[in-house]
Amino acid sequence: MIRYALSCKACEAEFEAWFASSGAYESQKEKRQVRCLDCGSSRVEKAIMAPAVKTTKAKDAAPDPEKLMEEFAAKARDHVAENFDYVGESFAEEARSMFYGEQDHRPIWGETTAEEREALSEEGVPAAPLPPAFTPPVPKPKGRLN
Ligand SMILES: [Zn+2]
């Protein structure tokens, strides 16, 4: 047995029906035996979303991809802000010095020029561009630096 969510093209009713197999559905459909429970029309199609009985509820519950993406990006930004040290324009210098063991590894983020990025990549220093959506606001410089 196979269950299909069906929708009526005539009255837009949505309902579910059981068939012996997908072939049984096809052959009953061909013979116009698959009919709308509401209006009796044979203009019934398999609905894309299943189950289709509570369409409005299902639609409300379906996550909005844009919202999900924004939530994900917000988490990524928080993660960077909390765990990564902002080193500003000395990123290339810091990354290189960690790579060559001149200082302990720690997660950092900062700014690089295109030339610096190219040089780092040629030297094999692991660094990846942070997508703009994942980039937290630049922290205010600490007073003790001056
Ligand atoms: Zn109908």
Supply the key terms.
binds zinc ion, 146 residues, 5 helices, three-stranded antiparallel beta sheet, two-stranded parallel ribbon, rod-shaped, 5 strands, alpha+beta
How would you describe this structure to a colleague?
This protein is of the alpha+beta class and 146 residues long. The chain folds into 2 domains: 2-61, no CATH class; 65-141, no CATH class. It is built from 5 helices and 5 strands; from the N terminus they run ββαβααβαβα. It has helices at residues 22-30, 55-61, 65-83, 91-99, 114-123; strands at 2-8, 14-19, 44-46, 85-88, 108-110. The strands form 2 sheets. A 3-stranded antiparallel β-sheet has the order 2-1-3. Strands 4-5 form a two-stranded parallel sheet. Strand 1 and strand 2 (14-19) form a beta hairpin. The protein is rod-shaped, with a radius of gyration of 29 Å. The model has no long low-confidence stretch (mean pLDDT 86). It binds zinc ion. Residues 8, 10-11, 13, 36, 38-39, 41 line the site of zinc ion.
